[in-house]
Amino acid sequence: xxxxxxxxxxxxxxxxxxxxxxxxxxxxxxxxxxxxxxxxxxxxxxxxxxxxxxxxxxxxxxxxxxxxxxxxxxxxxxxxxxxxxxxxxxxxxxxxxxxxxxxxxxxxxxxxxxxxxxxxxxxxxxxxxxxxxxxxxxxxxxxxxxxxxxxxxxxxxxxxxxxxxxxxxxxxxxxxxxxxxxxxxxxxxxxxxxxxxxxxxxxxxxxxxxxxxxxxxxxxxxxxxxxxxxxxxxxxxxxxxxxxxxxxxxxxxxxxxxxxxxxxxxxxxxxxxxxxxxxxxxxxxxxxxxxxxxxxxxxxxxxxxxxxxxxxxxxxxxxxxxxxxxxxxxxxxxxxxxxxxxxxxxxxxxxxxxxxxxxxxxxxxxxxxxxxxxxxxxxxxxxxxxxxxxxxxxxxxxxxxxxxxxxxxxxxxxxxxxxxxxxxxxxxxxxxxxxxxxxxxxxxxxxxxxxxxxxxxxxxxxxxxxxxxxxxxxxxxxxxxxxxxxxxxxxxxxxxxxxxxxxxxxxxxxxxxxxxxxxxxxxxxxxxxxxxxxxxxxxxxxxxxxxxxxxxxxxxxxxxxxxxxxxxxxxxxxxxxxxxxxxxxxxxxxxxxxxxxxxxxxxxxxxxxxxxxxxxxxxxxxxxxxxxxxxxxxxxxxxxxxxxxxxxxxxxxxxxxxxxxxxxxxxxxxxxxxxxxxxxxxxxxxxxxxxxxxxxxxxxxxxxxxxxxxxxxxxxxxxxxxxxxxxxxxxxxxxxxxxxxxxxxxxxxxxxxxxxxxxxxxxxxxxxxxxxxxxxxxxxxxxxxxxxxxxxxxxxxxxxxxxxxxxxxxxxxxxxxxxxxxxxxxxxxxxxxxxxxxxxxxxxxxxxxxxxxxxxxxxxxxxxxxxxxxxxxxxxxxxxxxxxxxxxxxxxxxxxxxxxxxxxxxxxxxxxxxxxxxxxxxxxxxxxxxxxxxxxxxxxxxxxxxxxxxxxxxxxxxxxxxxxxxxxxxxxxxxxxxxxxxxxxxxxxxxxxxxxxxxxxxxxxx
Length: 1006
Prior knowledge:
Helix content is 33%, strand content 17%. The protein is an alpha+beta fold and 1006 residues long. The radius of gyration is 35 Å and the shape is flat.
């Protein structure tokens, strides 16, 4: 049952004085196989209102709710507030069963007061509000249950890992509550009881009209049931709710994310295998948007953390998920056949089939190993001994080159990983170097098949080896075995308890025949030229294993295989796990230096606008304005390496590169900005800019804009008032820092055309400070409002404010750290958009393409005044390497027309985002220019209530879809879109497409 609206709670009315509870009927419980057909009791909303009136009095309104086998109605008072749920049980269910359900609900509510439970409502004397009503199918028990506002998790909406984990936690808490529950009303034979799953499917499969689907359901059930049978007698049993599905887990009211804290519908309460509670819960997830089997694992881990699974339960879990899905398919078809007017059951048919398809998407052993690995019960990886004869005659292991195709491989440099056939070329290089053969690593993620843009992770984990031969060679039987298959291009033979499969070109004919017993050393095949061979070793009887599998499923597939390296005379791959890198990071790296994502991918390689994880997946980088040229730009790499081979020292020494770079930088700025200081970061640049202004004017006070971030040094942090970067910024700033209102024309105090009021107000604040004897020595601001997500300052804003601060003897300091260097597309510097010239310009980030480099550019007059404070020196800010990097970045920006690319691709992307905003109410605005964009997400386009939680969930979903994007702004409700300036239209379209897909999957887009 699912509730789509959430009326206000209503105090429960007293029943009429003449109300009498009908006597209990006889003690009985359901036996599905004796009953089989269970049509929903037929009551109209008017009839339901009459029943409710007898229980609680007149004036109740009933709204029918869907159900598989019961009749449910939402009851509301005349003012629309919720009274409760009228539930009329199927006539096949006896009163004893109903009493058991009420008792179980009460027990869970008492055990876990923080869980909301649909308990039966009671009279003043404690008796439950039950009565018997007549239906076409016979007398049925009607009762009034507590209404839980919030709505269910049902529907196609994508379930985030946090939601999935919460579902598992609720299931575990219910399971532990019911562990010792006893009642005669749970001694039932239900069609949903997993102990009867095979019988139910076999009995109802005839209702599945499509032969192909019917056969698939029967086959999957038979296979799954065979797996269950092996452990059935060791599975613990207890009372279970058995219907903790997305339909019956209720969302926390007013929580923007779908996190369950409520449980309804105890109609399937019974005693059965305890693990069935989790299996039912998992199966219900499988139809949701973007869901596939591995996404249930957070629920498995969460369940196990509260109610540990035994090894036998881990073995049975996924087979029971498959059986549950099969039962749903067969039961849904049967229910619609016997109950033609049951729209609820009919609407669920395709959803139930989607669950079955996902449940059977992977072989049972794969999912079982995946489950076991998730809860720490993984089997020890299989190993093999070296055979009597190596697979390749006369080629020793020392003559075989081991290829590295991982993210750490030098062979993957300069984008080689995305070139078709890169593995063949790497192998050819090794063979040309004198190796007799070359071979890949077992189980090590490879970049050779990684697409640059992909919504799904690619299959990067090899389950065997690829082998290249330099020339003629003989393949021989490594140890005595039986040939299971032999055909052109293919041989499979036994290898102890395993099967060795060799695949090679069809032009090669094996020298053995199917069925023959072959001793070690017998020739299998002869190769007369260089050849590529695939070598795989799998357990006998295991399902067919693909040559490569996706990383999410590797822990499921690899236990079905073994490393074939010893067959070639090589050592097996060391698969020992390193200590968790995040734990090591937290142990030594101050945790205040946070990281993106709760469970981040590990990146060890980048290329252009892509980041590559150690699992071999390429992610589109939408946030990295530190590398405007793109990751690992060859020109930067070459010039840095060349300079490091020659000289790197500090800027007090005399060398050319610092002169050449600062000349180039000064040429990019208008007069009188002709003098450059070089530092290492944006924070240092802003800090120095403030010191220059204060030193030149002799005035210590600074006026800065609220909601801005400028850095982490003492001075730059003091003028940073972003509440996300420092929640206490406004209260703790030093007395020399003064603030003006953030000139945000979208969500500030003055919006739209009224934003013109910001400048006069800032001017008035400057005048007020001057009148009080504290005229600011500097006005500091970003020239394009970065922390707000790329909001342009109101037209003429800086002209008015700069004039005011200068009128009182102060200087204008422009923070160009984020937006400078052509990112805005139409302007190289942000201040150009405002038509002004600052007195001091602070820049960093883009300057070094990832190398730590920043600068402050001012007039010679202002620069000379710094001498009053002493001398200035930065060890590496102007070093030969830093200077050569800075010059190379400027050369490449020009030569590759990256500012023009920001105009073209940025304009196209903004159009795509604006089109998306037209059909997605969550998008309040598309800010920015060029490739400095911000997508602001709001819950209401009038109130502009920030969609903070929705933004965080969206970023996590985008990570699933292969895109790195993060929130910004004081409310963390703006997607910051600042990719490397080399991004192309295909990548921009991929981002827009994935954003569209994610928003639709999360229920935000039409």
